[in-house]
Amino acid sequence: YNTNHPGSVQSILRNVRHTAHKVRDRMSIDSTRVINRLEEFRDNRHGDTLNQLDQTLFTLSAFSGLAMESMTRGLGWRFMDMGRRLERAMSLSSLIRVSCGQLCESSFYTLQALLKISDSLMTYRGRYRSAFQVAPVLDLLLTDEGNPKSLVFQVASLADHVEYLPQEDNRRFASREERIVLAMFTAIRLLDLTTIQCGESSAEFENLSLFLAKTEKQLTDFSQQVTAHYLSQIPTTPHYSMISGNRAV
């Protein structure tokens, strides 16, 4: 409930409402009704917190469904979906990174929690039909391109969106955001998780933690690059020749 903490649920919902208000003329009636329901979390801060969180998740899921089914696939939708993919990728990378030290100490509960939070528990059970194991869980959450909640799926979606963003005519080189997302996508696809297992050595988990930390930085760099390239309003200075009417020397 701490509104001074940028990562709190209350702060995030406040930003959602603020952003929605700015583009209210572009939102459908149904979407506006869904966003207005987020007010209930703020108004009922002394109620059952878990129940409020459940209701908030349902509301956000409803908004996500409306966006996926109703929005025209223009640049606005692409930037919105890129933001969703970035948030999900950053959250998943951070979650797994901070869990690396507990994967062997309390393996069952930690792996189960990772799958539940990532909404991949049923997928794991249906695919493996076995007890929770470190390598298969990490493979499902990090490198499985068929799992819509995996890290690689988010990065692949970002790569797809970047291809459709406006680019300069006759450009000779890939943009910086294209290079960043390609580097991430390639590194995740080449990630070898077969050697990760609980034992005396913790080098594999340390390497994985470093890899995820690097990925988080790349995601941040990608976000900043896209923001600077497409979303920042930077005033331009007219060229001297345009002002004076003379040919530049």
Spatial gap, N to C terminus: 60 Å
Profile the largest sheet.
Answer: none
Q: How many helices?
A: 12
Estimate percent helicity: 55-70%
Helix/strand class: mainly alpha
Round the mean pLDDT to the nearest integer and report it: 85
Radius of gyration: 22 Å
Q: Note the beta-strand portion.
A: under 5%
Indicate the overall shape: globular
Order of secondary-structure elements: HHHHHHHHHHHH
Description:
This protein is mainly alpha-helical and 249 residues long. 66% of the residues lie in helices and 0% in strands. α5 (75-99) packs antiparallel against α9 (151-163).
Task: Give the tags.
249 residues; mainly alpha; 12 helices; single chain; 0% strand; 66% helix
Produce the secondary structure layout:
Layout: H1 9-22, H2 29-36, H3 39-43, H4 49-70, H5 75-99, H6 107-117, H7 121-128, H8 134-143, H9 151-163, H10 176-189, H11 203-231, H12 240-244
Helix pairs in contact: 2-4, 5-9, 5-11, 9-10, 10-11
